[in-house]
Amino acid sequence: MAFRQRRERLRSILNGPTCIRPGSVYDATSIRIAEDLGFELGMFGGSVASLAVLGDPDIALITLTELAEQMRRMSRAAALPVLVDADHGYGNALNVRRTVQELEAAGAAGLTIEDTLLPQAFGQAATQLIPLEEGVGKMKAALDGRSDSSLVVMGRTGAASITGLDDAIARARAYEATGVDALFFTGIKNRAELEAISAATKLPIVLGGAPEEMTALDYLTGQRVRIALQGHAPFAAATQAVYETLKALREGVSPKSLKGLASSELTGRAMREADTKERSAAFLGPQKS
Ligand SMILES: O=C([O-])CC(=O)C(=O)O
Ligand SMILES: [Mg+2]
């Protein structure tokens, strides 16, 4: 099955010799551009999913159905493997299992399940975590939800900046023991913390946003980091471009004089126009002009 190959490619990144940076993708066009530019992996963040689908902030308002549908659109458009941020799995451990089923069917190469308490609890401003034991149950349920064993399941925790390094290590070790394929960390503040986490665990590591001192790929590689995220600049760039374009049009600039638009060549590539032409010739018969 084609999805299996994508999952094997993600596995070979995790088991490979170096750390890579994924391209942030969020729709059919962005995944194709990332694929054409040679990215090995697409990252579909929960924050950009919320923005792309709802135009909302990253506060777990998006539903599993909406997330999975957006993933499906991307896997239909390109073969680039995608790692999906599945947040807390949209409920308790049983919901996590369902989340894995839906994202697997939608063509995700891998997904992360985190132990953050989501959505935000009543009367609590600070981010909270679910108990470690509940996190373990979620990881087990995620693994149980796979029907394709090549789908990559990652256990994620932001504990380092919420409850501290010791708790982050305890959680990472407990999740590792469930049989997840990789560990995903956010909130690691410095090299010493990463080194302690790396020394205490065995699985490949994926790093969410990291401070400047942790951007060198050879250093990260040496700490068993295999995927290092670098935010979601493409979505921000697209927002700015739409803003500038609408503003210019509103101010009376003529469409022909607009700056910064995709060339017809780039647009044609992004919509795989050549493939459509071939299919038209093959399936629509001789075409009169
Ligand atoms: O997955 C990522 O890139 C970081 C994250 O949690 C999000 O953007 O929602
Ligand atoms: Mg997220």
Automatic annotation (TrEMBL):
Record key words, sorted: Decarboxylase, Lyase, Magnesium, Metal-binding
Named cofactor requirement(s): Mg(2+)
Sites where the protein binds Mg(2+): 85
Species of provenance: Bradyrhizobium jicamae
Protein name: Oxaloacetate decarboxylase
Binding site for substrate: 47, 156, 232
Cofactor binding, per record: Binds 1 Mg(2+) ion per subunit.
First-tier enzyme category under EC: lyase
Coiled coil: none
Function as written in the Swiss-Prot or TrEMBL entry: Catalyzes the decarboxylation of oxaloacetate into pyruvate. Seems to play a role in maintaining cellular concentrations of bicarbonate and pyruvate.
Region listing for Disordered, in residue ranges: 264-289
Catalysed reactions, semicolon-separated: oxaloacetate + H(+) = pyruvate + CO2
Any single GO BP term: propionate catabolic process, 2-methylcitrate cycle
GO molecular function, one term: methylisocitrate lyase activity
Stated family: Belongs to the isocitrate lyase/PEP mutase superfamily. Oxaloacetate decarboxylase family. Belongs to the isocitrate lyase family. Oxaloacetate decarboxylase subfamily.
Assembly, per entry: Homotetramer; dimer of dimers.
HAMAP family reported for this sequence: OadC
Comp. bias regions, Basic and acidic residues: 270-280
Known EC number: 4.1.1.112
PANTHER family given in the database record: OXALOACETATE DECARBOXYLASE (PTHR42905:SF3), PHOSPHOENOLPYRUVATE CARBOXYLASE (PTHR42905)
SUPFAM superfamilies tied to this protein: Phosphoenolpyruvate/pyruvate domain (SSF51621)
